[in-house]
Amino acid sequence: VTPPRLAWLALHLLPRALREPIAGDLEEEWRAGAHRSRWRLWNLVLRSIAACWLDRLRHGAGRRDTPRPKGDSAMQSLRQDLHYGWRLMWRNPGFTFATVATLALGIGANTAIFSVVNVLSWKALPYHEPDRVAFVLGWDLEENEMRFNLRQADYLDLQRSATTLAAVSAYSYVSANLTGGDMPDRVQAYRVTPSTFPLLGVPAALGRVFDHADAAAGRGDVAVMSHGLWQRRFGGDAAIIGRRIDVNGQPHEVIGVMPPRFDYPVFNFKGDLWLPWDLRDAERGQPGARGGATVVGRLRPGVSYAAAQAEVDVLMRGFADRYPDSNRGLGARIVEMGRLDDEQAGAAPWILLAAVGAVLLLACANVGNLLLARGIVRHRELALRAAIGASRLRIGRQLIVEGVLLGLAGGLSGLLVAVLALAGLRASLPEVLLATMPNINELGIDGAALGFTLAVSLLASLAFGALPAWRASRELFEGAQRIRLGRRQPRHPPAARGAGRLGSSARDDPAGDRRPARAKLRWPATDQSGLRPLARDDDNLVAAGVQVRRCRVTAALLRGSGRAGVGAAGRDGHGARQRAALQHLRPQRAPDHRRGAAGPAGPRAVGRAARGHRALSGDAADSPGGGPLLRAPRRRRR
Amino acid sequence: MRTFLGEFEQILLLALQAAGTEAYGVEIRRLIEDRAGRTVSPGAIYTALDRLERRGLVSSRLGEPTAQRGGKRKRYYRLEAAGEALLRESQRALARLAMPQVDVP
Q1: pTM value?
Q2: How confident is the model over A182-191, as pLDDT tens digits?
């Protein structure tokens, strides 16, 4: 009758407050056999967990002893962080320029190389389902090397026999002179079988493409031209359809213009003109049979490349056996059309990316160093923020937000660098690459490159921003005794200023006491301001005078902490001297010392630090000297 | 603070009322299952009771741990006067709605 262990473990997912009664009920029922089956028990366990957490989501987490401080919503403080980070960037133009320029170079190089690799290796060819369009390449089985072309008779036989290929087509290059206009032109023309355009699945942008119907009707005198040729030679004239052009002296009727992104074939000179190819005289034994043809196939849906390759191997072996004169030692390899250059390029794209990635890492390291150095300069500012109540999370987030701002600025400038780099790269590319590589005309910043830049910028800002943020927050909050407020040591004894003294470090203490400074405060027995020790228990008390000279900066800083009553401290104007007493009582200790003991003008803000909460009560109206008296957060630490 | 009761809250309060003095989860669940023909998870019961307790409609106390429950304590709930009044009002409102429509002069 012992309950299933796993279900009982799952009950630990219940909120603690409700776990005992729910688990008790379930166990009682289980022992009494009320559940009848394990499944019913599991059903109740999972439904209980869901019910508890859904309720919590809907209604919040039960009783809340301390109300959430108002005006401190996450969005609001994030906006403050952004605003403050932005101002910091403007106020330190040298620093900002150095970091942004470093990042811009790193990110720009990455974006440029990403664009190149994306366009050349990853971007799909402009066909319908391009991953199913494949070369059927001639292969010399004896030398085991690529021959590229098959024989025209092989194409015809493959077209008839291959069942794994939905369609097979072939093309052949023709050097063509285009005449009939103002001046003759030499264009890259291809004879393509009528199956070509249906195989690629790309419709014409203007007019139509030719297909088997034209071949059946004996129309060998039609032509389809590229968008580039149409623009270049015919000025984009829509009346081109139906016009007659002379190709190598033969008249052809233009029936269609392809869309601008259409490149065919690829890894060969891109075609400007496609003419129908009549292969009727290329059957075995006929004069054209031994002529070459580049064969392209489309795999049937659901057929793998391995299956297609296996079938083509069998077919090619059959041809070699039957027609040893022409086919001995000739095989075929099926290669996805877009992958042909990948096979040749190998790991080069990845090596390139890794190299620029390393450049970016170096940039990040440099920026991280700069930020670390600035963290030291900013120590006072952060220490003050921590002292008046900013949480560790808040300060860490401030630094991360600053990092992200820098990263985004670097990314934006990096885009500019990338555009320039790509322009330079394009200009330096050899002509043959431009004429043969698919997609290369689209080399530039596109959506993918933008997304990549954004992602890289954010990643980089985390990379260089996280360490300084972590370090600063650790220094501030884990090494509390090292916080120094104020630039100079006070000239006058603190008693004269009506506040206690913070900052007598361990060095002053002959006993070598390394307890935090709060333990070594010396309180005057009494003084004219009325601020007296609350009790002889000054081990639990810290008070510090903060003289605020640069009120404008500090006002923002104080407002940044998002606490009411503190912001008022900075509004007195430039040069006003404000005194804030930072006080801390160790938790659970001082309920008896509240208020009354402090005397008529004593620090009103002293209170119990309930369960270590760092709620600041800036009771500005009541405090002596007009300054707010704050209860400062202090981490309890041994 | 809401001044009405949801359907499930009414069911719970009615079950507590039916149980007499006070009841804990297993009893409440059995009552609801037997009389309303509805299987509810203990999680749903306790979260709803917790909320009702915060509204002052029911009160609870912890019982003694028993071996039968693997050493876990029962939590007994009791219907408070405020809960009883609100339940009555909710029931009346439903009854009024269910009545055939009459012309009010």
Answers
A1: 0.49
A2: 778 888 889 8
Give the ranges where A479-550 is alpha helix by DSSP (H): 494-497
Q: Tell me whether residues A18 and B46 touch, CB distance under 8 A.
A: yes
pLDDT tens for residues A413-427? 999 999 999 888 888
Please report which helix (H) or strand (E) contains residue A397, including its range.
helix A392-428
To probe the interface with B, which of A5, A9, A20, A65 has the most B CB atoms within 10 Å? Answer: A20
| Other Cβ atoms closer than 10 A to A283 | 13
Q: Per the CB < 8 Å rule, is A48 touching B68?
A: no
Q: Which region among A127-136, A290-299, A534-543, A571-580 has the lowest average model confidence (pLDDT)?
A: A571-580
Separation in Å, CA A480 to CA A112, A412, A444, A507, A561: 46, 39, 52, 16, 18
DSSP states of A518-533: GGG----S--TT----
Q: List Cα–Cα distances, A375 to A380, A399, A465, in angstroms.
A: 9, 9, 11
Chain A hits for B46, CB-CB cut-off 8 Å, are: 18, 21-22, 52
CB pairs under 8 A between A and B: 76
Between strands A629-631 and A581-583, the pairing is parallel
What is the C-alpha to C-alpha distance for residues A426 and A432, in angstroms, rounded to an integer? 12
Q: How far is the CA of B45 from the CAs of A43, A332, B27, B80, in angstroms?
A: 15, 72, 11, 17
Report the gap between the CA of A72 and the closest CA in chain B (Å). 24
Tens digit of each residue's pLDDT (9 = 90 or more) over A8-40: 888 888 888 888 899 999 988 888 888 778 888
CB < 8 Å to B48, chain A? 55
Contacts of A23 in chain B (CB under 8 A): 70, 72
- Nearest 10 degrees: Cα torsion A277, A280, A283, A286: -110
Determine the longest span between alpha carbons in chain A, in angstroms: 122
